[in-house]
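call fold(seq) -> tokens
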Amino acid sequence: MQTLIFANGNFDVFPEFPSLVETADLIIAADGGAVHCASAGILPHVALGDFDSIGRELLEYYEREGVEIYRHPVHKNATDLELALDLAGEKGAQQVCLLGALGGRWDMSMANIMLAAQEKYRKIDVSLVGSGCRMHILHSGREHSVVNRHGIMVSLLPLGGDAEGVTLSGFRYPLTGHTIRFGSSRGVSNLMEAESASVYHRDGVLLCIQHTE
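ret:
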């Protein structure tokens, strides 16, 4: 099941956006993400959060239109985006694209990236779309395809520790069984040599950043 989650960060419509909406089985608005949905003319299936970032009129409109509403207290131990990701997992999401999760506050952008890389979401293919880039969380133990265009820049950054046994094919700078140390720049600014490349690593979590401009 493909899921779109709208968060409360920066969001601008991009070329792939209409097709993402058309193929989504579930659309979740995480609090202020409901404003992005409204501006894009989209009615989400679910809205959740403490709703401190949207007007009462929009929430009442959602209720009239049959949107599933999950209310949470303002004082809680998780962000609205984490609650949305948890709900997506509970509903059987296999692929989740996070929109509005990047940009604006640095702390929130970094927290959203680290959140998406949590072990509890290992079985979900999580991506984050921001201005000029698309990020993918790559968990270990399986081969990941990176699809874009020849010459596109791709960076691979380890999250939370070293990424071990990294093997890259279809890139200008291939690797075989390499360890990328946490904090190292070893995986920055690689280039795709075809429209599809592959990444495999034995242990750790990688953040794959594809530039789209």
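DSSP finds five helices and 13 strands in the chain.
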